[in-house]
Design brief:
Elements (H helix, E strand, L loop, with lengths): L2 H9 L4 H22 L2 H18 L8 H37 L5 H4 L3 H10 L3 H11 L5 H8 L3 H21 L5
Length: 180
Protein backbone atom coordinates (compact mmCIF):
# COMPACT_ATOMS: atom_id res chain seq x y z
CA UNK A 1 0.00 0.00 0.00
CA UNK A 2 1.35 3.44 -0.88
CA UNK A 3 1.76 6.29 1.55
CA UNK A 4 -1.02 8.26 -0.14
CA UNK A 5 -3.36 5.24 0.22
CA UNK A 6 -2.55 5.06 3.94
CA UNK A 7 -3.10 8.80 4.34
CA UNK A 8 -6.50 8.41 2.62
CA UNK A 9 -7.36 5.73 5.20
CA UNK A 10 -6.46 8.18 7.98
CA UNK A 11 -8.69 10.82 6.40
CA UNK A 12 -11.52 8.29 6.09
CA UNK A 13 -10.98 7.47 9.81
CA UNK A 14 -10.44 3.84 8.80
CA UNK A 15 -8.57 1.93 11.53
CA UNK A 16 -6.69 -0.03 8.86
CA UNK A 17 -4.55 3.11 8.54
CA UNK A 18 -2.80 2.24 11.78
CA UNK A 19 -2.31 -1.41 10.82
CA UNK A 20 -0.93 -0.42 7.41
CA UNK A 21 1.37 2.19 8.97
CA UNK A 22 2.64 -0.39 11.47
CA UNK A 23 3.17 -2.93 8.69
CA UNK A 24 5.07 -0.51 6.49
CA UNK A 25 7.00 1.57 9.06
CA UNK A 26 6.87 -0.37 12.34
CA UNK A 27 10.45 -1.65 12.21
CA UNK A 28 11.70 1.75 11.13
CA UNK A 29 9.95 3.42 14.07
CA UNK A 30 11.26 0.78 16.49
CA UNK A 31 14.81 1.41 15.31
CA UNK A 32 14.47 5.15 15.92
CA UNK A 33 12.84 4.70 19.33
CA UNK A 34 15.25 1.98 20.47
CA UNK A 35 18.28 4.08 19.51
CA UNK A 36 17.02 6.98 21.62
CA UNK A 37 15.53 5.09 24.56
CA UNK A 38 17.90 2.12 24.79
CA UNK A 39 15.00 0.00 26.05
CA UNK A 40 12.92 -2.43 24.03
CA UNK A 41 9.85 -2.01 26.25
CA UNK A 42 9.99 1.79 26.23
CA UNK A 43 10.51 1.73 22.46
CA UNK A 44 7.44 -0.48 21.95
CA UNK A 45 5.30 1.81 24.11
CA UNK A 46 6.60 4.85 22.29
CA UNK A 47 5.83 3.37 18.87
CA UNK A 48 2.29 2.60 20.03
CA UNK A 49 2.00 6.23 21.07
CA UNK A 50 3.23 7.25 17.61
CA UNK A 51 0.32 5.45 15.96
CA UNK A 52 -2.15 7.14 18.32
CA UNK A 53 -0.54 10.53 17.68
CA UNK A 54 -0.72 9.95 13.92
CA UNK A 55 -4.38 8.93 14.24
CA UNK A 56 -5.15 12.11 16.17
CA UNK A 57 -3.18 14.44 13.91
CA UNK A 58 -4.06 13.11 10.42
CA UNK A 59 -6.37 14.92 9.62
CA UNK A 60 -5.98 17.87 9.88
CA UNK A 61 -2.31 17.33 8.98
CA UNK A 62 -1.73 15.96 5.50
CA UNK A 63 1.92 14.91 5.34
CA UNK A 64 3.72 15.04 2.01
CA UNK A 65 5.83 12.08 3.16
CA UNK A 66 4.25 9.62 5.59
CA UNK A 67 7.63 8.07 6.34
CA UNK A 68 9.15 11.42 7.33
CA UNK A 69 6.04 12.38 9.30
CA UNK A 70 6.06 9.12 11.26
CA UNK A 71 9.82 9.40 11.82
CA UNK A 72 9.47 12.91 13.26
CA UNK A 73 6.64 11.78 15.55
CA UNK A 74 8.71 8.81 16.71
CA UNK A 75 11.76 10.93 17.36
CA UNK A 76 9.82 13.60 19.28
CA UNK A 77 7.91 11.12 21.42
CA UNK A 78 11.07 9.11 22.10
CA UNK A 79 13.01 12.17 23.17
CA UNK A 80 10.14 13.28 25.42
CA UNK A 81 9.98 9.83 27.03
CA UNK A 82 13.76 9.87 27.46
CA UNK A 83 13.63 13.23 29.25
CA UNK A 84 10.73 12.11 31.44
CA UNK A 85 12.58 8.99 32.55
CA UNK A 86 15.74 10.98 33.25
CA UNK A 87 13.76 13.60 35.17
CA UNK A 88 12.26 10.95 37.45
CA UNK A 89 15.71 9.53 38.12
CA UNK A 90 17.18 13.01 38.55
CA UNK A 91 14.41 14.03 40.98
CA UNK A 92 15.19 11.04 43.21
CA UNK A 93 18.89 11.83 43.00
CA UNK A 94 18.15 15.44 43.93
CA UNK A 95 16.25 14.21 47.00
CA UNK A 96 19.24 12.12 48.03
CA UNK A 97 21.57 15.09 47.56
CA UNK A 98 19.31 17.29 49.69
CA UNK A 99 19.19 14.63 52.39
CA UNK A 100 22.99 14.62 52.47
CA UNK A 101 23.01 18.39 52.98
CA UNK A 102 20.34 18.39 55.71
CA UNK A 103 22.95 17.43 58.27
CA UNK A 104 25.00 20.56 57.70
CA UNK A 105 22.62 23.35 56.67
CA UNK A 106 20.37 25.07 59.24
CA UNK A 107 16.61 25.17 58.91
CA UNK A 108 15.50 27.75 56.30
CA UNK A 109 13.84 30.08 58.78
CA UNK A 110 17.10 30.38 60.77
CA UNK A 111 19.35 31.58 57.96
CA UNK A 112 17.09 32.46 55.06
CA UNK A 113 18.65 35.85 54.37
CA UNK A 114 22.30 35.02 54.96
CA UNK A 115 22.54 31.46 53.67
CA UNK A 116 23.17 32.26 49.99
CA UNK A 117 25.94 34.68 50.90
CA UNK A 118 27.43 32.22 53.40
CA UNK A 119 27.37 29.40 50.83
CA UNK A 120 29.09 31.64 48.28
CA UNK A 121 31.73 32.55 50.85
CA UNK A 122 32.21 28.89 51.76
CA UNK A 123 32.49 27.81 48.12
CA UNK A 124 34.97 30.61 47.36
CA UNK A 125 37.22 29.23 50.10
CA UNK A 126 37.34 25.71 48.66
CA UNK A 127 39.95 24.34 46.29
CA UNK A 128 38.69 24.41 42.70
CA UNK A 129 38.35 20.61 42.49
CA UNK A 130 36.40 20.41 45.77
CA UNK A 131 34.16 23.30 44.71
CA UNK A 132 33.50 21.61 41.37
CA UNK A 133 32.54 18.35 43.09
CA UNK A 134 30.30 20.12 45.59
CA UNK A 135 28.47 22.19 42.98
CA UNK A 136 28.07 19.28 40.58
CA UNK A 137 26.67 17.08 43.34
CA UNK A 138 24.43 19.52 45.19
CA UNK A 139 23.41 21.91 42.43
CA UNK A 140 23.33 19.65 39.37
CA UNK A 141 22.53 16.48 41.39
CA UNK A 142 25.15 14.43 39.60
CA UNK A 143 25.55 10.94 40.98
CA UNK A 144 28.86 9.99 42.60
CA UNK A 145 29.57 7.58 39.75
CA UNK A 146 29.10 10.38 37.20
CA UNK A 147 31.31 12.68 39.26
CA UNK A 148 34.00 10.02 39.52
CA UNK A 149 34.04 9.57 35.77
CA UNK A 150 34.04 13.32 35.09
CA UNK A 151 36.82 14.01 37.59
CA UNK A 152 38.93 10.92 36.91
CA UNK A 153 38.46 9.64 40.46
CA UNK A 154 37.07 6.53 42.10
CA UNK A 155 33.52 6.60 43.43
CA UNK A 156 34.90 6.05 46.93
CA UNK A 157 37.24 9.04 46.61
CA UNK A 158 34.33 11.21 45.48
CA UNK A 159 32.07 10.17 48.36
CA UNK A 160 34.88 10.72 50.88
CA UNK A 161 35.66 14.19 49.45
CA UNK A 162 31.98 15.13 49.54
CA UNK A 163 31.65 13.88 53.11
CA UNK A 164 34.67 15.95 54.19
CA UNK A 165 33.36 19.00 52.34
CA UNK A 166 29.95 18.70 54.03
CA UNK A 167 31.71 18.50 57.41
CA UNK A 168 33.70 21.63 56.51
CA UNK A 169 30.44 23.36 55.59
CA UNK A 170 28.83 22.35 58.88
CA UNK A 171 31.85 23.67 60.82
CA UNK A 172 31.91 26.85 58.71
CA UNK A 173 28.24 27.56 59.49
CA UNK A 174 28.61 26.71 63.18
CA UNK A 175 31.50 29.19 63.44
CA UNK A 176 29.08 31.81 62.13
CA UNK A 177 26.46 30.95 64.75
CA UNK A 178 24.25 28.49 62.84
CA UNK A 179 23.55 25.14 64.46
CA UNK A 180 21.97 22.29 62.59
Amino acid sequence: MTDSDIIRLFFARDERAIAETAEKYGRYCMTIARDILDSEQDAEECVSDVYLKAWNSIPPDEPASLKAYIAVLTRRLSINRYHESRAAKRNRELEVAFEELEACIPAPEEAAEELPELLNEFLAGLKAADRRLFVRRYWYAMMPAELAKAEGMTVNAVTVKLYKTRNKLRKFLEERGYKV
